[in-house]
Amino acid sequence: MARKTVRTGEGGEDILGLVAFGSLVGNIFQIASRKSLGEQHEALKAYSSELRRHYENMKIRERQVYNENLELRRANEGLIAVNNRLLKELIEAREEDIRLRRASTRSPRHTRRQVLTKKGAVS
Fold first, then answer.
1. In whole angstroms, what is the distance from residue 99 CA to residue 17 CA?
2. pLDDT above 90 (res 21)
3. 18-46 average pLDDT score
4. Coil, strand, or helix at residue 81?
């Protein structure tokens, strides 16, 4: 019977050793990253909860701003109505003033003219 001998090459053992060492290093990093990952997950959950709280506060603030905007629109409409009423009264007053001036120019005025003398006295 013939015997088979397996020759071990130095190159093959080196590669297998490197692979085993790489696997070991990878496992160590994986264990460390899992611990870090858990801490990051907790931090992310806290940040997410903070963002939710800010979002709810912003929704409340948005509703307040919306209601204040509605109140300002109503006040603006009221001011426009007052302005229109005052403008109408002003137009009517001007028309009345013009009518009264025309009526007064038809009747002669009895006004006395003042004449200044050389000394500045009024006669």
1. 115
2. no
3. 82
4. helix
